[in-house]
Amino acid sequence: MKTPVRSALLFPLLLLSILALLTFWINKIVQPLAPKVDGSSRHDPDYIMSKFLTTQIDINGDLHYKLAALEMRHFPDDDTTYLQSPHYTQFSIGKADSQIQGLRGTVSSKGDKVELFGKVKFTRPAFGGKQESTLETEHLIIFPNQDLVRTESPVIIRQAPKTIIYATGMIYEKKLGTLTLLHNVRAHYEKPPLVVDKKRPPGVSASTKPKQTAVKRPTASNTNNARIRRRYD
Fold this sequence. Notes:
Layout: H1 2-30, E1 47-57, E2 63-75, E3 80-84, E4 87-90, E5 98-101, E6 104-107, E7 114-124, E8 133-143, E9 148-159, E10 163-173, E11 178-189, E12 219-223, E13 228-231
Antiparallel strand pairs: 1-2, 2-3, 2-4, 3-6, 4-5, 5-7, 6-7, 7-8, 8-9, 9-10, 10-11, 11-12, 11-13
């Protein structure tokens, strides 16, 4: 008679134990993971470098590009690098070296994308009889391994002596030597005045006035929503 009573007492205890284990297991599943104590889950820099400078060479051993900054901060949580006052130099054999600078920038974890922000200026110095030209924008993306520079932001291109081009969006392909303007392209061009030769031609009397050449007024063209590609090398 004692066995049935003992079995009746053990069954509720066994059931409670199973319920307790089940509750513990469910609680472990729904609980969020505890944060790591090594700091890798926080967006804090793990190292900071002043007067940062890095260079890359191509397969021929020639200098490909140089990236410098006043300060570099690396963040381990997303493996990104932040730059203060970045300055990017793109080297070209037999051509002028292009200079790109901005107020701040980022470098992707693989180093295959560099982004510049704030008063970005792309300068191509005068070289080989061509005048200096500059490009100004607020955001520029550089793909060093592809020799590609692009932006979706408005750009202003100035080319000496007095050419100004406005556009929204730009793609510069170094290998092809082309600059593609994507949208809302407007150009302002002023033809430089012709220099009148003050020397008196043979057979012309001193009383004869030199022929005056009229200087054309500034001209401007508007090609909204056009996609324009031009040589830029």
